[in-house]
Amino acid sequence: MTSWTSDELDRIGAADELEMAPLRRDGTLRGPVPIWVVRDGDDLYVRSYRGTDGAWWRTARATHAGHIRSGGVDKDVTFTEVTDEDTNDRIDTLYRTKYGRYGGAYVDPMVAGRATTLRLEPR
């Protein structure tokens, strides 16, 4: 398994959005969709605003692979589901801190979407 470089973590972590293109079962990439991303130490996390109904999330969960572009970083990734409560608590706080300026109408669904938390791992 490869790791993110410090530069990649800084650039993606500072970006407001990440373009997510999950890999379909037939091996093609879905069209990219903009989503919010947060950094926790050396890890990057995303969640679905629409919860488990999010089409990109369902595809990412099915294949655990895709491609991201953010902050000038263009990378193939593996998606790992996150169920750990402590990690999800930290991610809740990170979403509220990073995106709080957008208000509860946008941030609250991201915090409520804990069941859709995915860690991004470079491949």
What does this protein structure show overall?
- This protein has a single domain (6-122), classed as Electron Transport, Fmn-binding Protein, Chain A (Pnp Oxidase, Chain A, Roll).
- By secondary structure, it is of the alpha+beta class.
- Strand 5 and strand 6 form a beta hairpin.
- The protein has helices spanning 6-14, 55-63, 85-99, 104-112; strands at 18-22, 33-35, 37-40, 43-46, 65-70, 73-81, 118-122.
- It is 34% helix and 29% strand.
- It has four helices and seven strands; from the N terminus they run αββββαββααβ.
- The mean pLDDT is 96.
- Strands 2-1-5-6-7-4-3 form a seven-stranded antiparallel β-sheet.
- The chain is globular, with a radius of gyration of 13 Å.
